Amino acid sequence: MSMALPILSVSSHYPRRRAVEFYTIKSEFESGVVRTREGWTRERSRFGLSWRSIRNTDAATLWAFYQGRKGAALLFDVQDYRDYQVTDEAVGTGNGSQTAFQLDKKFIEEGSETVKVGGVTKTRGVDYTINNDTGVVTFGAAPGEGVAVTASYEFYYRCSFEQDSLTEEEFMHQFYNEGLSLVERFV
What we know:
The protein is mainly beta. It has two helices and 15 strands. It folds into two domains: 102 residues, no CATH class; 70 residues, no CATH class. The chain is flat. The two termini are 15 Å apart.
């Protein structure tokens, strides 16, 4: 069952920039040797939303959304119109016993997926179930040995506002000028 969160649709009305960040743990030794290791298992997205000529009613709606999410406290889903679909992802290959397969993305839009086994479209609730929050597809009967499992779907980024304390004037200034910062959260 999916956790129903508000959706902020990042359309062409809100031009955005998307950056990815990584977390690297570095250890430097007296000898000068530096060792690094990956701190996160995947990249994290950071969005900057801005618009210089948005209507005041739209800006007011976004301000109300910020207030409703209590600044950075409460999560919401972001659908980025430039990056929200996966087409024919190679999810895995059947071995005759494995029934659960992990999609590359999490937070799948309810009902958006098309899952195929050996090129044949399967029916949700009959042939498989999907946990939209985790992206795990579970089949009632394991796909056969060597049979390809593919999926197409739409997804969200689970985010929060980065800043927790903004006056309405600061919020509007950031939105109209340097942009509001949204950060993907790993949950």
